[in-house]
Write a structure and sequence with these properties.
single chain, alpha+beta, 6-stranded antiparallel sheet, 14 strands
Length: 315
């Protein structure tokens, strides 16, 4: 007797096998998609972590080198949705010293500025130059226009004029004054006072757009040298804690105009109120990162860190 042989699968068996295969493929695809999405989010988190670390390291270096005798400004503007921090710093390390072929070793004191705008999402950081070289045109130093209408040009004491296009060097000036506590002046109102400008070349008493400015002040120098440090920053908060433990917060949501007057470096009684000096600077920022995929949503992460400021020596 010959046993029965089956040479093919039945329809039910094929359907079951196909269903199992599809189920396995679906599970594997879902797992792969989840793993890919997790990988993309992890890469985005690593990128924002690296960016936040860069911000912390730079701010920490600059705050640790803060000059104890110069003024500090913290400002928040709701109209522009911006935050600004301005202070003077010294050398951050032994190699942070600029030389100039015209002046040799220049000062190591420079102004630094941190600026963030919600519109651009960019954190800009700049430091003024250690030394600026410029020229003053003294061709008409003995004229009525120079002596009366524009007396800030270089004029010899004998009023006979000096050599044309004299070369000068301008160094960042440590400023201690900030106006009153109730109405502190903006940094541009004080830091640009050390600028020497030759203008009104037509001598008509009006500065025309085409007329040249040969020198800039410390604040304008900061604007010129501003460079982006971080992009895609959706939120930034800078908080300064003074000597009395009062926190002054700038976040671009509420207006703030706070300034700390400078002190004598040795902290003597002639200094401004030491309680107004910053003791701690906190920074919180939210960074957005692209996952690089249309199927995986972009992510954002919030960071916060603090930096202590140098303390003035008291006698």
């Amino acid at each position: 007797m010959i046993p029965n042989r089956r040479d093919a699968f039945t329809l039910i068996e094929l359907l079951v096998a196909t269903a199992l295969t599809l189920a396995i493929v679906a599970v594997a695809t879902a797992a792969f998609s989840q793993m890919l999405a997790m990988t993309r989010r992890l890469q985005a988190r690593q990128a924002t972590d690296a960016t936040a670390r860069t911000v912390y390291e730079k701010l920490s270096r600059e705050v640790s080198a803060m000059h104890p005798g110069a003024a500090v400004w913290l400002r928040s503007d709701t109209a522009a949705q911006s935050v600004e921090l301005v202070f003077m710093k010294g050398k951050e390390d032994p190699w942070d010293h600029t030389t100039n072929k015209f002046a040799g070793a220049a000062t190591d004191l420079v102004w630094t500025r941190w600026k963030w705008s919600k519109t651009s999402g960019v954190i800009e950081v700049s430091s003024s130059r250690h030394v600026r070289r410029f020229q003053l045109d003294n061709t008409n130093a003995g004229t009525y226009w120079t002596r009366v209408l524009k007396p800030s040009l270089w004029v010899h004491k004998d009023d006979i004029g000096g050599p044309a296009l004299s070369d000068f060097l301008s160094l960042p000036q440590p400023r201690r004054e900030t106006g009153t506590a109730a109405a502190p002046l903006s940094p541009v109102a004080l830091l640009d006072e050390n600028s020497w400008q030759t203008w009104d070349t037509n001598r008509n008493g009006v500065r025309d757009p085409g007329e040249e400015t040969r020198d800039v002040g410390d604040y304008e120098d900061l604007l010129i040298r501003a460079r982006p440090l971080v992009r895609r920053c959706t939120g930034l908060t800078i908080e300064v804690l003074d000597g009395q433990g009062v926190a002054h917060t700038a976040d671009g949501v509420a207006n703030l105009a706070w300034a700390s007057p400078g002190n004598l470096v040795d902290g003597r009684a002639a200094s401004a109120d030491m309680a107004q000096r910053p003791t701690l600077i906190r920074l919180g920022l939210t960074l957005a990162a692209s996952t690089g995929s249309s199927s995986v949503a972009d992510v954002s992460f919030t960071y916060s860190f603090s930096c202590t400021t140098p303390h003035t020596i008291r006698y």
